[in-house]
Structures are given as C-alpha cells and as structure tokens.
Amino acid sequence: MKAQQKPLSEKPTLCATERNSIRSNCREIYTRIATRKPNGGITPDTAKLLRAKRSVLNWFFSNGAPIWTNFRSFLCGFWEIRSISHFAITDVNGEKFSYAHRKSSNGWFDYPAAASEKHYHLRLGDWSLRESHGTHILRATTSNDTIFEANLKPTKPVVLNGKAKDGVSFKDEGEASRYFSYTRMEMEGDIVWNGETEHFTGSAWMDREFGTWTPTEKQKGWDWFSIQLDNETELMCYQLRNSTNGISEWSSGTFVEKDGEFTPLSHEDFTIEPNGFWKSPRTKAVYPSGWKLKVPKFDLDLTVVPVMDDQELDTRGTTMIVYWEGACEVSGTANGKNVKGRAYIELVGYDRSHDAPNLAYFLMGSHFEFPPKFGWD
Q1: Over the stretch 161-173, which tens digit does the pLDDT of each residue have?
Q2: Beta-bridge partners for 337
Q3: CA nearest 235: which of 177, 302, 176, 289?
Q4: 110 by DSSP, 3-state: which?
Q5: How many whole angstroms separate alpha carbon 78 and alpha carbon 90?
Q6: Domains (range + CATH), the chain
Q7: 217: which DSSP letter?
Q8: Closest C-alpha among 64, 23, 63, 62 to residue 162
C-alpha cells in the first residue's frame, strides 16, 4: 500500500501460477505465526516474513518528543532497482521537517545495497535495518551530519491485519497484500545533530507489507492512520480513494487492545472526516490537515492534528511520487474517558505528478535530500 506503482518481483511480471503460489505460501506462513509469542518476540515464522523475498515494503516510525522519525525501505524488481529507502525527521521544538531518499541497483555510482534472504537485514549505503535477538536495529543518516540510531523491541504480539486476521489485506476484489504490524515497540537510541549527541527513548510502530497486487480504480490514493493512545491501545485504519475521491468499500483497519488482542475493522466501522486543509507551496497539492476520526464499535472519538503543516516528501527521484507523511497529536475520548496520543499519517494521491512521470528525473537521481537550503542549525 505504500507505493503508487505496482510492486513487482525480480521478474517484470508474474504469471497466474506464480501469483497463486506466493499467495498460498504467505497464507501458510501467516497461519503458523498466528500462535505468536505473548511477549511479542520474533518467532521463526515471523522471521521468515521479515526476510521474505519478492516485493517487500518495510517501514518504521518512532515517536519520542521532541523528535519524530520515519524510515521506510522498499525492495523490488522495478527496472532492476533493488532497493529504495526514505528517511524523515520532524523536529517539533525546532519546527523543522527534513528528509532524504535513496535508491540503488548496485551500479557503479550507486550506494551498495543488500538484503539477506537468511536473516532480517537490509542495507543501503550507511542506512540499515536488521533484527538481533528480538530487537530491531535501525540506522540512518543525512548529509548534514545527522545520524540516527535506534533499537526497537516489540512489547505486544505481532498483529495480522486483514478481515480474517490472517495478514491478508484486500485492496479490491482479488487484489491483496500481506500486511502485519508491531503496533507498540520500546525505543531507545542516539541522534547526532547540531554537532551534539542526544540520547532518547520513546515508542515506535513497525509495518511490513508486501505482495504483487494490482492498483485499480479503487486505489488512486489513500489516507493511512497509525495511532498509539495513552490507554495502551492502538488503531490502524486507512481509506482507499478512487479517481473522484470516493471512498472504497475495501478500506479497512485494525484495533489493538491493551493486552494485544486485535479486531479487524471494515470500512463501515470507522469514519475519517477532514476539518482543515493545507496547500503545498512547492507542488501546489492540497492535502487534508486535521481530522475527526470515530470508531463507534470501540467508542472512540478522536481529533488528529499535525504537529506542523509541511511534512510533504517529494520522492520523484526514487519512487516517482509526492506524498505527505508526518507526525500528529491525538486527543479525544475512548469509552467516555479522555485520552491523548500520537499518530503518523500518510496521504498519497493528492499530488498527481506520477500520472505523467519524468523518467529522466527518476533514472538520473540517486540521492536526494530536502529541504537542501535549510538543513539543521
């Protein structure tokens, strides 16, 4: 769900037999990891999913005031591109948003990239994501001497998204991804910026989604929400949009209880209503900015507000899309009691430059960082 174009395997296309084989194998793995460790640890079958081949999308976000970070990595066979990664930092106190993105096919002028098929370990230049003894270890940098390193450990069992609680998430009739989450992780690490090293702790969320589904008319864009509330519950939900901004009936979500039990949500179980908008001064795209989100089944009535308006990423040099993805604050009620929380929101499809992509920009670009004229003081 995190790429506008169709995620592909190492081959340009997959025949029906290959598709069915992948779906069957993934369903089998998901069925086995349904008996997951109570402490949220990584079981052997979870490890298989983390290092699975084919189309892979991994992304993390970690939120610990005063900074929020987002790291995502894509593996695909699209035009022989092997690895793509995005990294963003929202500095709330400094009111700054900065990001970098990279791609590599291990060419002469590319960053060295690797992805293990035997162990959960991805690397793109000096950026890396790996697992060791149940802990996820993340490292990313920017050219303005910012270095981010964090250890993230699940505190809840893995969540298998999808209507059947098996990790198969349908986006349209016959089109599905494989999608699981660690919705609450303890986070600790160090960040080097402004010439100083700061130690931090916080909370993190990890999503993994992969597959070979085909984008359809009902997947022209999406608004995706991940929310951690201070009552130790979490909510993931997304609305898929068509070309006229109509909401698809394939929109869905998952609510996670304090003890880790989770309930799938259909599009009828929640509502997301924007209560403000923001226009990008660079791309002129207009994004929702602020929402009312309700889940009557769990008596949730939430208000979601971005910590800053401008958290837009222009990644046309790597994934050929422009999107908004950023940190938000949450307030409202749950079962009649006041709650607060934090969220990370992804908005895709409001900028339509990918409908007529600049191929030269994509092919020539390798490492981009924005905003280049600001940086960190």
Answers
A1: 999 999 999 999 9
A2: 334
A3: 302
A4: coil
A5: 30
A6: 16-370 (2.40.370.10)
A7: G
A8: 23
Q: Of all helices (H) and strands (E), which one includes residue 304?
A: strand 300-306
Distance CA 230, CA 341 (A): 6
| Single pTM value for the model | 0.82
Task: Indicate the range of 56-60, 94-98, 131-135, 171-175 predicted with least confidence.
Answer: 56-60
Helix (H, G, I), strand (E, B) or coil at 334: strand
**CA 358 – CA 365 distance, rounded (Å):** 11
Q: Which of 40, 31, 67, 365 is nearest to 234 (CA)?
A: 40
Tell me how far apart the alpha carbons of residues 63 and 340 are, in angstroms, rounded to a whole number: 14
Taking only the tens place, the pLDDT of each residue in 186-231 is: 999 999 988 899 998 888 999 888 877 788 899 999 999 999 999 9
The rounded mean pLDDT for the chain is 79
The Cβ-side half-sphere exposure at 262, using a 13 Å CA radius, reads 30
> What pairing do the DSSP bridges indicate for beta strands 291-295 and 286-288?
unpaired
* Interatomic CA distance for residues 218 and 232, integer angstroms: 33
Rounded Cα gap, residues 34 and 29, in angstroms = 9
Give whole-number Cα distances, 12 to 6, 54, 281, in Å: 11, 11, 37
3-state secondary structure 37-83: CCCCCCCHHHHHHHCCCCCEEEEEEEEECCEEEEEEEEECCHHHCCE
Peptide bond into 112 cis (omega under 30): no
- Range from 72-76, 103-107, 119-123 carrying the lowest mean pLDDT: 72-76
Helix (H, G, I), strand (E, B) or coil at 175: strand
Distance CA 13, CA 11 (A): 5
Taking the chain, what is the end-to-end CA distance rounded to the nearest angstrom? 35
